[in-house]
From TrEMBL:
Alphabetical list of Pfam families matching this protein: Peptidase_M61 (PF05299), Peptidase_M61_N (PF17899)
Protein name: Putative protease with the C-terminal PDZ domain protein
Single GO biological process annotation from the record: proteolysis
InterPro entries: PDZ, PDZ_sf, Peptidase_M4/M1_CTD_sf, Peptidase_M61, Peptidase_M61_catalytic, Peptidase_M61_N
GO molecular function: peptidase activity
UniProt domain PDZ: residue ranges: 466-523
């Protein structure tokens, strides 16, 4: 045998054999949020095996340090002999191998991060996002995996993954699919339905004031709307997971499912219910946008480092924008409810001074470090609201210039067709698509609206589609201070002072405790306190900082007692009505003709 053949055989012997990675999670101390994990990695002849727990989870672009809940780590050979190992960074364990062997790892997980939707165990259930439970090795990341659960009697296990050997056992083609297919196991209610040949499940953990029949009815309407944007569905089965909790709230998209968390008493009121079904629509859209096409920098996912992209506004903000289109088109929400949500987004944008500082592209790239609070509101924005408004401006521009024939939905349709995973796209790719579908160059528009802080003339923009952004006729001018404050009983504590406002220039800052305005003790709300004064009036502000009483002069601003609202114009032109329908999928509420289309 020649030297080349010997070298080739030696190299091949170091490559792991094709075999399943086997995971087992045992839960016998649920009240203490503890689970025991065992992992069997296939036989390998590597000199060492590095295994990691992810440092973040998909859908939440933030380092979470998930390895902080790992204890009692052990590594053994296939013969049960202890293997030497050393932790080489905060979430990597290096196991030394003297001879070829499969590697058996065990450790304990503390799972009490319900609100992060990464891991949670208690005496009624476990929510299992693999990023918080199951370690991986790059050597075996593409190998098939199985997951076996040993859970308390009476628990039911549900996942978007396929079942394996029994009702608490699942399988996936590789670790990436496992990581994007959470498991809900515990005491829950399960409802199954079918729409257009695809199977769906709704699993609910926790009691609440929800109406299951209404949820099922609207989910059936919602899942039919995918074809309004994309040419096919990327799944045959999809699971809606709902947590009715006492505190945690939020949601996360996954490859074949979503997890939605809401307070158990926030389903019954119409506004609360709209919040739930809008969240379901948002995560449903993510099945395409993010889970089947996503920006470069996030393909493939790097689970142990930030994944940077200047297009997260498109991944998240566009999804927020499109969710309302699906809900309105499906007849789940009304025109008025559509306007109300749009109004909320515009109002939030206009009350965020950071909109003048940070562009949609910049806030996307900085998502991993952007913080909230007073400084965040003054100097930053976020991928959701800015992305939604960039999408709105782009959508109406496309509709306007094409007489309703081309819309922003076409952009996402083409992204799915041209850049389905494992491909990825960048900003230039999106601009190329815009040119393909519209015949126009959007490079200047992109620089002005995506790469620069967004500045929209909402009056002109909304008028294009037969809407207006106005105050109620009976609005009155009132004094303002351009701050946010909460009462602690006797004082008003500032949580935000708008950048460059008169209050800012007067030296007030977040954390100051307002005592009096012109010698008059503040009332239980800022609104009531300011009601005693006139717009543009200069007042003396007494406040406490560092336990000392201080005073400054501030000129009050001119505000209004009622905010501006989005509403339909009373008599839209034929063109406005036409573009409105092309935009929303429904007739303008005040249209005086029936669109022949």
């Amino acid at each position: 045998m020649n030297k080349i053949t010997l070298s080739l055989l030696a190299a091949l012997s170091a490559i792991p054999a094709f075999a399943d990675v086997e995971y087992k999670l045992s839960i016998d101390q649920p009240a203490h949020h503890l689970g025991d994990v065992k992992v069997i990695f296939p036989k390998t002849s590597q000199a060492h095996l590095d295994i990691h727990l992810p440092d973040w989870r998909t859908g939440r672009y933030e380092i979470l340090d998930l390895a902080n809940g790992i204890r009692f780590f052990e590594a053994k050979s296939e013969n049960g002999e202890n293997l030497q190992w050393k932790k080489i960074d905060k979430n990597t364990w290096r196991i030394h191998l003297d001879e070829p062997t499969e590697v058996n790892v065990s450790y304990q997980v503390y799972a009490n991060q319900l609100g992060m939707r990464s891991r949670h165990i208690d005496d009624s259930h476990a929510f299992i996002d693999a990023s918080g439970f199951f370690m991986f090795s790059d050597s075996f990341r593409q190998e098939p995996v199985t997951v076996d659960l040993d859970v308390p009697k009476g628990w039911r296990s549900v996942s978007g993954m396929d079942f394996a050997d029994d009702k608490h056992s699942f399988k996936a083609d590789n670790y990436d699919i496992l990581l994007d297919s959470p498991i809900e196991t515990g005491i829950n209610d399960l409802y199954k339905f079918e729409v257009d040949g695809r199977k769906y499940e709704l699993v609910i953990w926790g009691e609440g004031n929800y109406d299951v029949e209404l949820m099922l009815s609207d989910l059936k309407k919602l899942v039919k709307t995918g074809s309004l944007i994309w040419h096919d569905y990327p799944y045959e089965r999809y699971v809606f997971m709902v947590h009715a909790t006492s505190g945690a709230r939020g949601a996360t998209e996954h490859l074949n499912s979503t997890i939605i968390q809401r307070h158990r008493d926030s389903f019954a009121k119409r506004d609360d219910y709209i919040g739930f079904i809008a969240t379901a629509a948002h995560e449903f859209i993510h099945t395409w946008n993010v889970k089947n096409y996503r920006p470069a920098g996030l393909v493939p996912y790097d689970y142990i480092a930030p994944n940077y992209s200047d297009l997260l506004w498109l991944s998240e903000g566009s999804t927020s924008y499109l969710e309302n289109y699906l809900l309105l088109s499906a007849g789940i929400t009304s025109n008025e409810e559509f306007y109300k949500d749009l109004n909320k987004t515009i109002s939030r944008h206009l009350k965020t001074p950071g909109r003048e500082v940070q562009s949609a592209a910049e806030t996307s790239f900085d998502k991993w470090i952007n913080a909230g609070g007073d400084h965040g509101r003054n100097f930053s924005t976020n991928i959701y609201s800015e992305g939604s408004l960039v999408s709105l401006a782009l959508d109406i521009d496309l509709l306007d210039k094409s007489e309703g024939k081309v819309s922003y939905r076409d952009v996402h349709s083409e992204l799915y067709k041209q850049f389905k995973l494992p491909k990825s796209f960048n900003s230039q790719d999106v601009q190329n698509i815009l040119k393909q579908i519209s015949g126009r160059d959007y490079s200047t528009w992109w620089k002005e609206n995506v790469e620069s802080p967004l500045s929209i003339d909402f009056d002109a923009l909304l008028a294009t589609v037969g809407l207006e952004y106005t105050r109620p006729d009976n609005s009155k001018a009132v004094a303002g201070l351009d701050v946010m404050a909460k009462s602690n009983g006797e004082l008003l504590i500032l949580s935000h002072v708008a950048r460059e406002s008169s209050a800012w220039q007067g030296g007030l800052t977040a954390g100051d405790k307002l005592v009096a305005l012109d010698g008059r003790q503040v009332r239980k709300s800022l609104k009531d306190s300011l009601a005693l004064f006139e717009p543009e009036q200069e007042v003396s502000v007494s406040f406490i900082r560092r336990h000392q009483l201080m005073t400054t002069k501030v000129k009050l601003t001119s505000d209004f007692d009622k905010p501006k609202k989005v509403k339909a114009v009373k008599a839209p032109t034929e063109r406005q009505a036409k573009l409105y329908k092309a935009w929303t999928g429904v007739e303008h509420p005040n249209a005086i003709y029936t669109n022949p289309q």
